Amino acid sequence: MPFLEKETEQYDLLFASGVLYHMEEPLKLLNLISKVADKVFVWTHYYNREVIMARRDLKRRFSSIKSLKYNGVSYEYSNQSYNNALASIPGFCGGSQAGSKWLTRDSIIKALQQFGFKDLQINFEQVDHPNGPAFAICAQK
Q1: Are 115 and 34 in contact (CB under 8 A)?
Q2: What is the DSSP letter of 21?
C-alpha cells in the first residue's frame, strides 16, 4: 500500500491475487488500486457467515460480522485471526499482522463499484474452497 499511496503512473491492469483477504484495510487497498488502474483482476477469499460458521476449522478464526464506513459508505466484514500461525507454522505465507479483515462478497462488489469500476465479471467462485469461500473478479471502468 505504501507504493500505491505514492504512485502517479497509470497501469493497464492491476493483478491482485491472494492479497485482499490478508489486509487490515482492504477497502483502502481497493481504493488505491482504482487510482492507478482502469482494469483490475482480484482473486480473494471473502466472508460468508453461513459457510464459515458451519466449518469447525474456520469459525474459530473469525469474529461476528461488523460494519464500517469508508468514504461515507457502509461495508460488512469479519475480523480474521491468524492465531498462532505467524509464529508456529514454518513457511507461513499469510499476512504479516495478527489478523485481517475479510469483506463480504457483496461488500467487495460494492467497493469496486463505488471506486468507479462499472463492468464486473465474476468467475472461479468456490464457496467450498478449503480455506474459505473465494472468487475471482475482473473489473474495468
Answers
A1: yes
A2: G
- pLDDT tens column, 44-87: 999 999 999 999 988 988 999 999 999 999 999 999 987 654 44
Reduced to 3 states, what is the DSSP secondary structure of residue 72? coil
pTM: 0.91
Amino acid identity for residue 136 in this structure: A
User: In the chain, how many H helices and how many E strands?
Assistant: 6, 7
Find the length of the chain.
141
In DSSP terms, which residues pair with 39 in a beta bridge? 140
Nearest to 129 by CA among 55, 64, 63, 20: 55
pLDDT, one tens digit per residue, over 16-28 is 999 999 999 999 9
